[in-house]
Design a protein that fits this description.
Layout (H helix, E strand, L loop, with lengths): L2 H13 L5 H11 L7 H23 L7 H22 L19 H24 L6 H33 L3 H24 L1
Helix pairs in contact: 1-6, 2-4, 2-6, 2-7, 3-5, 3-6, 4-5, 4-7
């Protein structure tokens, strides 16, 4: 197996794993306000997040910036909590589950904020990747393939979330607002538990 393929697989499995609870929960919160018909917007959000974490992952892995692991590990659930709270606030009193026009927007510039949160998550990824690379000084191919693997893993996860939402909203008849509040509430609960565990 080539180096590129090896790190592509490692990046993919780093996301598609129950050990990646924090990143999976962030993706859940990120996708909560959107339906399957909004997939282009969701892909843009996820790609913005990937660009953000790719920057800090490269900088930290190459030793250009330092990482205070405890602070970064605490900030990751904070990004989830903020995303979930905004989703719940913007869900509003009534949302038509069949109307795309009523899709709440996370913030005025959701892609920029997804990228900003990606900067934090990238620093979290860096500890894992540095442990894999050991003393390798210029892991350019490894960084590229790992980031690509992470992006593919994220796209798979958000596809599952959007498809599940489609089934529940369009086929089962769950109200759009209930879906957003339930999913965001679940993400909020998981992130709060993660934060409390770190405080112990």
């Amino acid at each position: 197996m080539s180096v590129f393929t090896t790190y592509l697989q490692l990046g993919f499995l780093h996301i598609c794993s129950w050990q990646a609870t924090d990143h999976l929960t962030f993706l859940l919160a990120l996708c909560a306000p959107y339906v399957l018909a909004d997939w282009r917007r969701v892909v843009a959000l996820v790609t913005s997040f990937t660009l953000g974490h790719s920057i800090t992952l490269a900088l930290a892995t190459l030793g250009i910036v330092g990482v205070n692991a405890p602070i970064i590990e605490a900030l990751i659930p904070v990004t989830i909590i903020l995303t979930a709270l905004v989703n719940m606030k913007q869900a509003g009193p009534v949302l038509d589950r069949r109307s795309r026009r009523e899709t709440p927007v996370l913030w005025a510039a959701p892609n920029a904020l997804a990228a900003a949160f990606g900067l934090i998550h990238g620093l979290g990824f860096s500890n894992y990747l540095r442990a894999l690379l050991g003393a390798k000084s210029r892991p350019v191919a490894e960084l590229l393939s790992f980031n690509l693997g992470v992006e593919l893993g994220q796209l798979l996860v958000v596809s599952v979330i959007l498809l599940l939402g489609f089934v529940l909203l369009r086929m089962v008849g769950v109200a759009r607002r209930d879906w957003i509040l339930t999913v965001s509430g679940a993400a909020l609960g998981v992130a709060t538990l993660l934060l409390l565990q770190m405080a112990q």
